[in-house]
Amino acid sequence: MTLAPIDYAILALYFLFVLGIGWRLRARSSSSSDFLTGGHSLPVWITSLAFLAANLGAQEVIGMAASGAKYGIMTSHFYWIGAVPAMLFIGVFMMPFYYGSRARSVPEYLRLRFDEKTRGLNALTFAVMTIFSSGISMYALGILFEAVLGWSFTASVLLSATIVLIYTYLGGLTSAIYNEVLQFFLIVLGFAPLAAMAVYKAGGWGGLQQRLPPVMTHSWKYLGDAHQNPMGVEIFGLVAGLGFVLSFGYWCTDFLVVQRAMAANSMAAARRTPVMAAFPKMIMPFIVIVPGLAAVALANMSTGYSIPTKGDGLDYDKVLTSLMAQFYPSGMLGVGLTALMASFMSGMAGNVTAFNTVFTYDIYQSYIRKNAPDSHYLQVGRLTTFAGIALSIGAAYLAQSFNNIMDLLQLVFSFVNAPLFATFLLGMFWKRTTGHGAFAGLLSGTTTAAITHGLTIAEGKGGWIAPAFSFPSTMAQNFRIAICAWSACFLVTVVVSLATKAHPEESLHGLVYSLTKKISEEGVPFWKRPLPLAGIVIVLLVMLNVVFR
Amino acid sequence: MLDLRIPSGYFFAITGIVLMGLGILFPDARAPLTPLNVNLYAGGVMLLFGAILLLLARRKA
Description:
Oligomer: heterodimer
Number of helices of chain A: 22
Number of strands of chain A: 5
Radius of gyration of chain A: 23 Å
C-alpha cells in the first residue's frame, strides 16, 4: 500500500489538532488532582466516549477484524456477552462506591475498604501490567505499519509515543480524555464506511450468509459442542468464563477504564458513564468485526481480493488494512490510517495516564514519600509521564526481540487478573469481608490459575505439571482457568474473612453496599437514571443476540 | 474550560472539505473494489458531522 502526499497531510492535520487540544488544556494541570484525576469535572458524554476509546486500542481494532475473519460473528460475544453486561453492572452497582468513596484510584479504594497490603499488591501488579500492555500494543502497531506501509518500526513507535507524551504532559488526564473522544469519532467515521462498503460488495448480510459457512454467521447455534465451532468453546465456558469472570474482572476493576468514569463531574454522571457507553459499544461489532467476515466472503468471490498471507498461512492481522487498500482511494485512505493511528494513541494514552495516577498516589505517595506538598506530587506525576512512556517504548522493543517473553508475561497477567472480580464483589457487597481475606483470596486465585494452566493442555500450551485435561482451543482453556481462579479466590476470601477479625462498621460507610445510603433519584427523569437506561440496553442486547443467534 | 465540540468540529469540517475537494477535483480517483466516489461522500458525511458539532457548541455558548 502506498500513501499519497494528501494522506500524509491528513495525518499531520490530525496531529496538529491533538497537540492543540493538549496546549489549550495546559492550564488544567495546576494541581496533582487536576493532572491525575481530571479534577472530577468532565461532562458525561465526554467521559462515556473516553470510557470506550481508552479500551479501543489498535490491537483491539486490528484484532477484532482478524477474529471476525477467523471465527465469524461469534467474535461479537466479546461485546454482547462480555463487555456490555459488565459495563451496566459497574455503572448501576459499583460506581457508587468508587466515586462515593472519593478514592483517587482503584488501588486506593482497596486500601480504604481492606488494607495496605491489598492495595500494594493491586497497585504494583497494575503498574507493571499497564506498561507492558502499552508496550505490546506499540509493538503491534509498529510491525503492522512496517509490513503495510514500509515505515521503520522505530519511526512509528517514536513518532506516536512523542505525540502522546506531549499532549499528556501538557494537560494530564483531561487532555488524554479529550483526545480519546476525538479519536473515538475518528475511529467510527474512518472505519464505518469501510464496513458498509465491504458488506455491500459481499451482497449484504444475506450475501454473507450465502458465501460463508453457517458457523461464521451464527453466534449461538454452534456453541453446544466445542468441536462444532472454530473458537473451540462451549456455552458454559463462554458465559461463565468470558461473560462473567473475565469481562466483569476487566470492565469493573481495571483502573484504565474505571478512571474515565471517576473523572465525571458528579456521582450521577459517573454512574451513567459506563451505561451510556454501552449504547455505542453494542454497535461496535458492526464496525470492527463485520469487515473481517466481509473480507472472507470477498475472498470467496471472483473480485481479485484475497486474505493476506504470511509464509504458508493466512495473516489475519492484515485483513483490515488490506480491505482499506481495496475500498479507500487516496484521501480517505489517509483518514483510515489516521484512525488506526488514533486508536493506537488512545489505547496508549489510556495506559499511560492510568499508570501515572497509580504510580504517583499508590506507590510514590504511599511508600516512597508521604506528606509532601501537592506541588511535589504534581511534579512527580508529570515526570512519571516521561518514565511511563520511556518504559513502554522499552517494552515494545523487548516484545520485538523476545516474543516468547511477552507471551509468558501475558499469561502471568491473566493469572493475576482472573480472580480480581471476586475480591471486589465480596468487598462491595459483603461487609464481613476482611483485608486478610481479600489478600489471601487474591494470592490463592492467582496460584489456582497457574496450577490449572499446569494441569490442562490446549494447542500445545500449558500442561507443565501434568497434562491431565485437554481443551480444543487455548481460548476454552483460558475461560476455564478464569473460572477456577475466580472460584478459588471467592472461597478462600470467604473462609479467611470469617476466621479473621471483622473491620469495624463505622470504617466501612460509603464503601460497602449495606452501609451506604441509597442514592435518591426522586425527580430525576428516567433517561438520566442508570437503572432504566440499563434496562433499555438489556432489551437491545437480547434483540441483537436473537437476530444473530 | 475548552468545549471539546469546537476543536472536534473544526477537525472534521476541515477534513470533510479536503476530502470533498479531492472527490470533485479528481472524480476518477477510485479504489479497486468500489465504483463509488468515496472521497466525495465520506467527506460530505464528515463535513456534516463537524458542522453539527460546531452548531451544538454555538447554541450552548
